[in-house]
Task: inverse folding
């Protein structure tokens, strides 16, 4: 695996998240009935950072929930390795809320399909809007993000690596080349 | 790390990591049970048969709920009115079920080793729901989950199992499981209901309930199996209650509040007095709820594990 390029650095990530926060507030005309839900693992940290920025801008705390979509995956029967359950933690009622669903990378769209199914099992949100840090294309399902940090056209033998200080040593987004075969 | 076994036949010799994984996984399913829609699509397309050669209400319903809440297809097989009543052997029953493309089998049988036997003749994942006086692993797992939920740990705790230890698969599975997890286990009951060599399993034996109570954090009170009392292991249920029944008076002598568990169904005022069963230190109904979550965890881990 070889690093091809760094597309976002620490400062860049901060700017992107700040812009996304402004866009979310603008499009929703405030944060009334807004709640943020991050998809584990990396979506969790992006969601928490967005919530912090939005909270500071609007001077009001915003609900944050965490989604573990493992139980809703469509590849459980074919997966080679058993995924570890990390648990969904949504401590507020999602019914009638505008849910801002957050993930790090939008790729095939299958994770988002699972997340949507899980969210509607938890209640009936007024709207669900999707925020992703990176959209790398190659969708396999008809899913589109409402807010995109950066569109990054990729080939299938590349991978996007999002690194976040909460779990990695730094804040950055890298394109890496997957090994042949 | 995935679970290391294709089957859950008992807790004897199960790696600590596996028990830890089952208990951790159950936490996720416990959250699912609090949702408005208590169902996840995880085992869609899997067919599970509940093979109950011995009557059971609670365990069978708990398993069936767990299976349905994972979206599996469920078939129930009860011995009354079945081919077994017509003389079919366990092996033939199993083979026939297998021919119908069943993915997992939950089995209860009066013979110790029945689940192990099944696991050798069918390709499906086998879960032991009680085999004679041998083991009842999911009951012990839900007991451990309930203890961990209340105390935040298992290690270092002292659990005393009171009652008919000789005929109890719940006792045996609890002894194995709790010891693997680092808890201390003792047993208490009349001499006629304590197996002769039980100390060899590393448990302490008390023949006096007051003494047992003084040294424990948790009392797991077993049901006196009235249907097994035709051989007179003790003179009368009244006498049993006087000596071994868990009552408020006996618990008042303890230095600290003792958590009360019972695998059910309860004989009120035989092995446990009504006020203790319904008292503030009783976690009996939490056990029932946790049982569904723990069984979902076991079904998930075996159904999506290596040998799926």
Result:
């Amino acid at each position: 695996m070889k690093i091809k390029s760094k597309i976002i650095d620490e400062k860049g990530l901060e700017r992107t998240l700040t812009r996304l926060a402004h866009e979310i507030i603008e499009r929703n005309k405030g944060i009334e009935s807004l709640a943020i839900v991050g998809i584990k693992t990396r979506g969790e940290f992006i969601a928490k950072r967005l919530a912090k920025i939005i909270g500071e801008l609007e001077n009001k705390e915003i609900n944050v929930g965490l989604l573990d979509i493992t139980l809703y995956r469509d590849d459980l029967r074919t997966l080679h390795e058993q995924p570890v359950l990390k648990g969904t933690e949504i401590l507020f009622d999602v019914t009638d809320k505008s849910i801002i669903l957050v993930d790090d990378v939008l790729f095939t769209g299958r994770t988002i399909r699972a997340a949507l199914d899980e969210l509607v099992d938890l209640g009936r949100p007024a709207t669900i809007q999707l925020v992703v840090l990176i959209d790398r294309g190659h969708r396999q399902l008809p899913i589109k993000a409402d807010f995109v940090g950066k569109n990054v056209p990729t080939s299938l033998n590349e991978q996007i690596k999002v690194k976040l200080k909460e779990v990695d040593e730094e804040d950055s987004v890298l394109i890496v080349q997957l090994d042949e075969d | 790390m995935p679970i290391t076994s294709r089957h859950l036949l008992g807790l004897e010799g199960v790696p600590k990591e596996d028990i830890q994984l089952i208990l951790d996984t159950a936490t996720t399913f416990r959250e699912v049970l609090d949702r408005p829609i208590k169902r996840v699509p995880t085992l869609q397309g899997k067919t599970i048969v509940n093979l109950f050669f011995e009557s059971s209400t609670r365990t069978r319903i708990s398993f069936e709920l767990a299976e349905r809440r994972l979206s599996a297809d469920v078939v129930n097989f009860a011995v009354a009115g079945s081919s077994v009543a017509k003389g079919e052997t366990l092996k033939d029953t199993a083979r026939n079920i297998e021919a119908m493309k069943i993915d997992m089998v939950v089995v209860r049988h009066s013979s110790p080793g029945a689940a192990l036997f099944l696991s050798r003749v069918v390709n499906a994942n086998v879960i032991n729901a009680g085999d004679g006086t041998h083991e009842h692993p999911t009951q012990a797992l839900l007991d451990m989950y309930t203890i961990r939920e209340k105390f935040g740990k298992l290690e270092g705790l002292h659990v005393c199992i009171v009652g008919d230890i000789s005929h109890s698969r719940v006792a045996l599975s609890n002894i194995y499981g709790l010891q693997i997890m680092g808890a201390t286990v003792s047993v208490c009951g009349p001499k006629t209901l304590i197996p002769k060599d039980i100390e060899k399993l590393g448990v302490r034996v008390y023949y006096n309930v007051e003494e047992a109570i003084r040294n424990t954090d948790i009392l797991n009170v077993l049901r006196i199996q009235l249907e097994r009392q035709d051989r007179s292991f003790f003179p009368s249920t009244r006498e049993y209650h006087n000596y071994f029944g868990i009552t408020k008076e006996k618990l008042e002598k303890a230095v600290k509040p003792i958590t009360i568990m019972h695998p059910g169904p309860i004989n009120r005022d035989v092995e446990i007095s009504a006020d203790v069963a319904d008292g503030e230190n009783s976690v009996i109904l939490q056990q029932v709820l946790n049982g569904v979550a723990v069984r979902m965890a076991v079904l998930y881990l075996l159904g999506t594990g290596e040998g799926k």
Remarks:
- Chain B touches chain A through 23 residues (CB under 8 Å).
- Chain B has a mean pLDDT of 92.
